[in-house]
Amino acid sequence: MTQPVSYRSVLTSRNVPQLLLAASLFRLGHAMMLFAVVLYAIAQFDSAAVAGLSGFFLTFPGFVVSPVAGAILDRFGAVRAVALDGVGSAVCIGAIGISSLSGVLTPALLFLLLALYSLTSPLTDGGIRTLFPQFVPEAAYDKANALDLSTYSVIEVAGPLAAGALFAAAGPDPTLMTIAAMYAMAGFSLALLRGGSRPAAPGGGTERHLLQAAWDGIRYLARNATLRALAVSYSVFQVAYGMLIVVVPVAVERWFADGDSAGRLAGAMWSVAGLFGGLGALLAGKMLHAGVERRYMAGATVVAALAVFPLSALGSLIALGAGLAVFGMAEGTVNVSLLSLRQRRTDPGWLGRIMTVSISVNLIGFPVGTALGGFLAGAVSLRTTFAVAAALTLVSAGCARLLIPREA
């Protein structure tokens, strides 16, 4: 019988603390950017539609190039690739601030720079998740993923709060320049990692042409029943999440506050979700083991749907905070289940490509959700927008239950 693995043993594994630090810096920059770009577009262009499209361009181009990014990870190594993303992200975000200060920023230029920022993002998204399985044994995947996601959830608490407070105190452009500096520091932090990871088993012919290797990764995902099902279920879940990213700040501004106070309050709301997301991830890490991930994922997604509607849509600040708290806790369980299932049912030699391609395919719904949320928030009532998000979340739960195979 396999000896149970504790959180402490995972935390004291070689390179795991350093990797958590680097991941936290990257994710803090991303969490601040994800929240700040909506506030930035509203402040600069006074348009919910521009805010929704900003979220779309912040993420969608990276999803398109994710197969190539995965091949780069397998070919050149995750550490180099993630460092490249840190530098590229800092340059693109800084360029937005400089363009604004120069008076030449337009919605089209904003979308272009956000798209360029997005192109290297899969390197970090897949790279971090590729490195964790190299430092811990297979039996520790659930707890390693829970620690990873719980620190990410702490970042989700700090990110919106920091972005909202900085936005209110310093203004839009200094906020973006601060985020650019955060990415630069994240890139340099990877120097703390030392040798000692287990090399991935060879697979898929990483010596082949980069585009061919990328295509091989897509074919591997398409032929793997578990990865296909996760892509369908979680991409629908992310449509709902993307809608919430836009509709929550709009709801706060329309229902409860305006101006700078709305930004701080919306940041606080998402911080509540992030805090409970961390708790949900840690609880899931203790309960999950091989064979039960599918059941936990479907059940938690149903809970998330009820948290979105009717709870979050009642029109009360307390109800909105409670709804986001329940949603965050359920999301933590969903994410640990998904990550562990994906790692267990992917051949190690394909991990770089599959992590990157799978993460991007799984998240493809997010930019669709931000665009849809921006449209619905302006065209129909906010309660209807919440209801649509909840309905999509229920569809995600059904897909998880019906499509994910019981066994590999």
From TrEMBL:
<dbReference type="Pfam" id="PF07690">
    <property type="entry name" value="MFS_1"/>
</dbReference>
<feature type="transmembrane region" description="Helical">
    <location>
        <begin position="93"/>
        <end position="119"/>
    </location>
</feature>
<protein>
    <submittedName>
        <fullName>MFS-type transporter y4rN</fullName>
    </submittedName>
</protein>
<feature type="transmembrane region" description="Helical">
    <location>
        <begin position="386"/>
        <end position="404"/>
    </location>
</feature>
<dbReference type="GO" id="GO:0022857">
    <property type="term" value="F:transmembrane transporter activity"/>
</dbReference>
<feature type="transmembrane region" description="Helical">
    <location>
        <begin position="296"/>
        <end position="314"/>
    </location>
</feature>
<feature type="transmembrane region" description="Helical">
    <location>
        <begin position="176"/>
        <end position="193"/>
    </location>
</feature>
<keyword id="KW-0812">Transmembrane</keyword>
<feature type="transmembrane region" description="Helical">
    <location>
        <begin position="50"/>
        <end position="73"/>
    </location>
</feature>
<feature type="transmembrane region" description="Helical">
    <location>
        <begin position="264"/>
        <end position="284"/>
    </location>
</feature>
<dbReference type="InterPro" id="IPR036259">
    <property type="entry name" value="MFS_trans_sf"/>
</dbReference>
<dbReference type="InterPro" id="IPR020846">
    <property type="entry name" value="MFS_dom"/>
</dbReference>
<feature type="transmembrane region" description="Helical">
    <location>
        <begin position="361"/>
        <end position="380"/>
    </location>
</feature>
<feature type="transmembrane region" description="Helical">
    <location>
        <begin position="320"/>
        <end position="341"/>
    </location>
</feature>
<keyword id="KW-0472">Membrane</keyword>
<feature type="transmembrane region" description="Helical">
    <location>
        <begin position="149"/>
        <end position="170"/>
    </location>
</feature>
<keyword id="KW-1003">Cell membrane</keyword>
<feature type="domain" description="Major facilitator superfamily (MFS) profile">
    <location>
        <begin position="226"/>
        <end position="408"/>
    </location>
</feature>
<feature type="transmembrane region" description="Helical">
    <location>
        <begin position="229"/>
        <end position="252"/>
    </location>
</feature>
<keyword id="KW-1133">Transmembrane helix</keyword>
<feature type="transmembrane region" description="Helical">
    <location>
        <begin position="20"/>
        <end position="43"/>
    </location>
</feature>
<dbReference type="GO" id="GO:0005886">
    <property type="term" value="C:plasma membrane"/>
</dbReference>
<dbReference type="InterPro" id="IPR011701">
    <property type="entry name" value="MFS"/>
</dbReference>
